[in-house]
Write a structure and sequence with these properties.
- The protein has about 475 residues and is mostly helical.
- It is built from 22 helices and three strands.
- The protein has a three-stranded mixed sheet with strand order 2-1-3, with no helix packed on it.
- α7 packs across α20.
C-alpha cells in the first residue's frame, strides 16, 4: 500500500515573513515577462527596417508582421502545452531552466538570420521557450510565495511585461537609427538585448529551489521537508525573528507520475465552472491586447498621420500605464478581494473603451488624447489581465497547475494572437473610422462580458492557501493513517 504522510509544508511556506529569499524568487522567476514584452515590441517596431535594402536578410515587412508574428504565437501555444505537461510531470525547476535555455538559444540565432525561412524558424522556437516559461514560472511562483501576498506579487510580475515593452520601444528608436548603427547591425543588436538579459536571469535562477509542494506530491516528501527546513533557517536569519508555529496539516498519498487522463478527468469533472471562468478571462484580455493594442501604431499612422518613427514614444506612454495598473492596484486584490477587483477592472476598462470609441468616432481625439484615453483604459485592463493569469494558477489542483495555466494561455493566445488580428487588422487598416470604432467596441464588449462572468462565478481566493482553494489530487482525509514526513 502506498504510504500516506502528514505534513505542514504548505502552512510553513505561507507563514514565512517576506525576506530577501522571496525577492530572489521574484527576480529569478518573474523577469521572464520582461523578455516577452521585449520580444513582441522589438519585432513589431523593426518590421520596416528588416525589409529595407541592405538589412542583411531577404524578408518583407508583411512577412514579419504576419508569418513571423503568427509563428511566434503558434510557438508560444505549443510551448505552453508541451512544457506545461512536462512541468507537472518532472518538476518546476528542471523545466524553468530548460525553457529559458530554449529562449536564449533561439533569440541568439534570430540575430544571425539571413533569410525569411530561418527567421520564421527562430521566431517559432523563441515562442516555444516563452510559452513554456509561462507554465513553469507561474506555477512555481504561486507555490513559493506566501498566500497573503500571492495576489499582488503575481500581478506585478505579470504586469512587468510592459517594462519589457517600454524598453523594447525605446531601444528600437536608438538601435534602428542609421546615424548610429548600420542598417544590417541595429536590428541584430536589438535581439542581443534579450540574450544578455536572459543570461543574467539564468544566473539568478540557478539559486531558485524546486517547489516543495511539487516534491511533496510526487513521492519525495523527505526531500521536501529538508528543503523547507533550509528555507526557514535562511529566512529566520535574514529577518532576525523566530518563525511562528503552524497548526494546519495536510495528508497526502505518496505517488509518482499522475497520468494526463487522470488530470483531464479531474479538471473537467470537478471544476467545470472554474474552467469557464478561466476561458472568459483569457479570451477577453487576449482580444483586447493582441488585437487592438498591438495594432496601435497602425491607428496612429492611419488616422493621425503620426510619423512611423514617432509611434514608439506613444507606445512607451501606454506601456507605463499598463505597468502602473498592476503595481498600484495589486495590493487590493489581496485585501478587498479577487472577485470584486477582477470584475471591476474588466468591466471598468470595457466601459472606458466604449467611451474612447465614441470620442474617436466623433473625431474629437488627437494622437495625444487618444493615447491618454488608452493609457487610462489599460491602467485598469492590465490589472485585470494580470489577474487572469493569477486566477488559473491558483484555482486548480497542484498536480494540474502548470498544464491548466498552459491550456488557458494557449487558448487565449491563439484566439487573441491569430483570430483577433485577422478580424481587427482588417477593420483598422481599412482607413474608415467606423471600422476602427467597431474594433474598439468588440474588444470592450468582450472585456465587459468577462467581467460579468467573474462577478457571477469568480472564486474568492485572497489570502487562502492553494490547498484550501483546490485540494491536491494526492490529498487524503487528514484522519488517514500515516506518518509525518
Amino acid at each position: 500500500m502506498t504510504d500516506v504522510v502528514r505534513t505542514q509544508i504548505p502552512a510553513r511556506l505561507d507563514r514565512l515573513p517576506w525576506s530577501r529569499w522571496h525577492w530572489r524568487i521574484v527576480i529569478g522567476l518573474g523577469t521572464v515577462w520582461i523578455l516577452d514584452g521585449l520580444e513582441v515590441t522589438i519585432v513589431g517596431n523593426m518590421a520596416s527596417r528588416l525589409a529595407e535594402q541592405g538589412s542583411g536578410i531577404h524578408i518583407s515587412a508583411a512577412q514579419v508582421t504576419t508569418w513571423a508574428a503568427a509563428l511566434y504565437v503558434a510557438g508560444a501555444c505549443c510551448g505552453a502545452l508541451f512544457f506545461g505537461h512536462l512541468t507537472d510531470r518532472f518538476g518546476r525547476k528542471r523545466l524553468f531552466m530548460i525553457t529559458l535555455a530554449v529562449y536564449l538559444s533561439a533569440t541568439a540565432l534570430t540575430a544571425l538570420s539571413w533569410t525569411a525561412w530561418f527567421f520564421f524558424l527562430c521566431r517559432f522556437l523563441t515562442g516555444l521557450g516563452i510559452g513554456g516559461e509561462y507554465a513553469a514560472i507561474n506555477s512555481a511562483i504561486d507555490e513559493l510565495i506566501p498566500a497573503r501576498a500571492r495576489g499582488r506579487i503575481d500581478l506585478i510580475i505579470n504586469g512587468s511585461f510592459w517594462i519589457g515593452a517600454a524598453v523594447g520601444a525605446l531601444a528600437s528608436i536608438v538601435l534602428l537609427n542609421t546615424a548610429l548603427f548600420a542598417t544590417d547591425l541595429g536590428w541584430r543588436l536589438a535581439f542581443g538585448i534579450g540574450v544578455v538579459l536572459g543570461l543574467v536571469i539564468l544566473l539568478v535562477r540557478r539559486q531558485v529551489p524546486e517547489s516543495p509542494r511539487w516534491l511533496l506530491t510526487h513521492g519525495r516528501a523527505k526531500e521536501a521537508e529538508r528543503l523547507v527546513d533550509s528555507i526557514e533557517h535562511e529566512v529566520s536569519e535574514e529577518t532576525g525573528h523566530d518563525l511562528e508555529p503552524v497548526r494546519d496539516e495536510l495528508a497526502v498519498q505518496q505517488r509518482g507520475v499522475i497520468g494526463f487522463t487522470t488530470i483531464a478527468r479531474t479538471v473537467l469533472r470537478d471544476y467545470p465552472r472554474r474552467g469557464l471562468l478561466g476561458l472568459a478571462l483569457f479570451i477577453g484580455q487576449a482580444f483586447l491586447y493582441n488585437s487592438v493594442t498591438f495594432g496601435y501604431a497602425v491607428i496612429l499612422t492611419t488616422f493621425f498621420k503620426t510619423p512611423t518613427g514617432d509611434t514608439g514614444y506613444y507606445f512607451v506612454v501606454i506601456a507605463i500605464g499598463n505597468f502602473l495598473g498592476p503595481l498600484l492596484l495589486g495590493r487590493y486584490f489581496d485585501t478587498v478581494g479577487r472577485k470584486p477587483l477582477i470584475a471591476g477592472t474588466y468591466i471598468l476598462s470595457g466601459l472606458l473603451l466604449f467611451g474612447t470609441a465614441a470620442l474617436f468616432q466623433n473625431g474629437i481625439l488627437t494622437a495625444a488624447t487618444m493615447t491618454a484615453c488608452w493609457t487610462v483604459v489599460l491602467f485598469f485592463a492590465s490589472a485585470g489581465a494580470s489577474a487572469a493569469y493569477l486566477t488559473v494558477s491558483e484555482i486548480f489542483p497542484l498536480e494540474t497547475r502548470a498544464l491548466c495555466i498552459a491550456l488557458f494561455y494557449a487558448v487565449g493566445t491563439a484566439l487573441g494572437g491569430i483570430t483577433g488580428p485577422l478580424l481587427f487588422n482588417g477593420l483598422v487598416s481599412s482607413g474608415k473610422p467606423a471600422d476602427t470604432t467597431l474594433a474598439f467596441c468588440i474588444g470592450a464588449g468582450l472585456m465587459c462580458a468577462a467581467g460579468l462572468v467573474e462577478a457571477a462565478i469568480g472564486v474568492r481566493a485572497e489570502r487562502r492557501s492553494l490547498e484550501d482553494l483546490a485540494a491536491p489530487l494526492s490529498a487524503v482525509p487528514a484522519s488517514a493513517s500515516g506518518v509525518e514526513a
